[in-house]
Structure formats: C-alpha cells, structure tokens
Amino acid sequence: MSLTQSKTRAFGSPSRYIQGRYEINSLKEYTDAYGDKVFIIVDTFFYKDYCKKFEEMYKGNAKVYEYKGEITAERIDEIADTVKDFSPNVVVGMGGGKTMDTAKAVADKYKAATIIIPTTASTDAPAIGLSVLYNDKGEHIGARHYVKNPDLVLLDTDIIAKAPIRFFVAGMGDGLATYIEARANFTSCSPNYVGKGFRPTVAVKALAEACHQTILEKGISAMLATKEGLCTIDVEDVIEANTLLSGLGVQNSSCAGAHSVAEGITILPECAKLLHGEVVAFGVLVQLIIEGRPAEEIEEMYSFFDAVGLPSTFAMLGIPNASDADIMKVAEESLKSYWDTEPFPVDAQMIYDAIKMADILGKQYK
User: Fold this and answer.
1) How far apart are alpha carbons 253 and 19 in whole angstroms?
2) 142-157: string of b/e by CB count within 10 Å (b at 16+)?
3) Residue 9, SS3?
4) ∠ CA 53-58-61 to the nearest 5 degrees?
5) What domains lie within the chain, and their CATH numbers?
6) The whole model's pTM is what?
7) Cα dihedral 166→168→171→175 (10° resolution)
8) What is the pLDDT of residues 185-197, one digit of tens each?
9) What is the per-residue DSSP string for 237-264?
C-alpha cells in the first residue's frame, strides 16, 4: 500500500478547457492571449489538411512542424532545436497522445504556454501535466512531470466525432478506469500526481464519479452517433468525460490495478497494436475481480463492454492462445506499476488468477 504522509490536499488542472464544433477556426484568437511566436506541432495524419490552414491563419508568422515517429528524450530535443532561433512563447500540439506529449515537453523547454488540440477522444492525456516517454523500440520507459498543466485544452468536436469509432470507444475504456482507480486510491490514501504528491480533494472524487456515470449512461448512444459521424449532446458529454473528467481524475488521484494490467499486457508482441484505452479497459475488469467487487458491478461492466465493443476476453485482445506462462509474465510485469496503490497487498499469483478469471467471465457474458 502506498500511503501518503502529507496532510495537505492539492488539485491540478488546465487553466482553460474549451470544447465545441469548429473551435479550430478560432485558434489564433486563443493563442493571441498567450503570445505572438507560435510553434504548432501537427500529427502527420493531419499535417496535409491543416498546415496550409494554419499558415494562412497566422499569415506566415507561425512555425508549423509535422510530427511523426516515437516520443523519446532525444526526439524532443531534436524538435525543440528546430525552433531555437524562433524561441516560441506558445507551443500548440495537435494530434494523438505522442504529438500532444511532445508539445508539452517542447513548451516546457521554452517556458512557453501550452495549447493542446486532441484529434480523438481516445485518452485523458490532453488535460494532464506530464508526457509519457518511450525508447526507440516503442517501449514505455517512464514519464516526465511538469510544474503546470496545459494552459488551454481545445477540442473541436466536429473533428473528434468524425474520427474512427475505435478511438472513441477506447477513450471510454480509459475513462472507466478513472473512478475504479480513484476509489482504490482514496481507500489506500495514496498520493496523487500533483507536484510531489498530496492527498486527493473531495472534488476529484465527484469528478471521477461523474466521469464513470456519464460513460455508462451515455456511452452506447454516443458510440452509435459517432459511428455515423454525428455530434449529439451525448457525444459531447462523453468526449468531456473521456478527456476532461478522466484527465482531472487520474492526475488528482492516481493509477491503480487497471493501468498496471495494461502496462503488463503490452509486453506481449501480439498486443502491441492495441490502443491504450483497450488494454486499460481489460485491466478494469481484472481490478474489479481482484478487489472482489459485487457481482452486479462486474456484470454491469461486462454488459457495457459487450455493447460498445471493448475487449473482455483474450481473443478480443488478440491473444486467444495465450499460455499460462504468458499470463504469468503479464502479471509479473504489471507488478512494476501501480498495484501498490491498492488498499491491500497484491502479488503476481493474485493478478494471474484475476486475469484468467476476467477472460472466463468475458466468454460467459458473450
């Protein structure tokens, strides 16, 4: 158990959060509030469509960079060096998690304002004050924490609603871990991810609960709408849950079993192409089982997973023939992560049993 010794409570969040249709068209208006030397890092999948748009918007006074590849410490330095003479006072990151995290890191180097524009609602990364780092092989090696969260998180819901449905569903999987893990952290009194780690606030418990209920109550409707490229109120609400509520929830509480299982699963080569939220979702099931949660709660989760297509079996994870040795490897690897924030001691055998049981129940509920 990871017990905080601090009697001080703390809460971290972005300075501004703006969400709505066609908000990308107002980007210059928003960046003008922070500075006049704007460096925009755009994911390679969006670069062709938006490079010209941004150059026209800023009349050639902004630097636009196409992001591709892995996020490593060396890559961050390399990208930052491309604008050394420009010395930006605003850094914008538009794209997926790696693009956004790169923008945060480059902004930190220049002590610049950070504006994050997610193009999917697949993770809670936009609102959090950290970057996840990898090595050249794509293996997770740690995180870089910052003294502040992004200055602005800007979501154009027209872009997000038209993204592939898989990303939206994965975001719900990641979001469903928020309350499950926050509850464990509250019980164990574990430190949060604000600064050196403080006690969580009452506010974060309410936010985590709101995230959970929004996804469970509106997620199926929202998923059906986004399949058709529609942006209904339910879609808007779930986007907020996946992004803002989940981001605030994880930073101001902490991770626990669900993210631990996710980090363990990704050591299997067959799982390398899974989205973050997909492996976290399976971890949610494992955490509920290892905590011995009531059958109704577990059944509700399996039912929701089945309705939206989140993975609940080894087959859905792409490992239908996973051996016992593979599962034990995952269990042992997951112990290196966040299991110590659970309110009781956890060992590899307990995790192994819970992973196997999650698969068994997943087949039962199909």
Assistant:
1) 24
2) eebebeebbbbbbbbb
3) strand
4) 125
5) 16-161 (3.40.50.1970), 165-365 (1.20.1090.10)
6) 0.93
7) -130
8) 999 999 998 988 8
9) HHHHIIIIIHHHHHHHS---HHHHHHHH
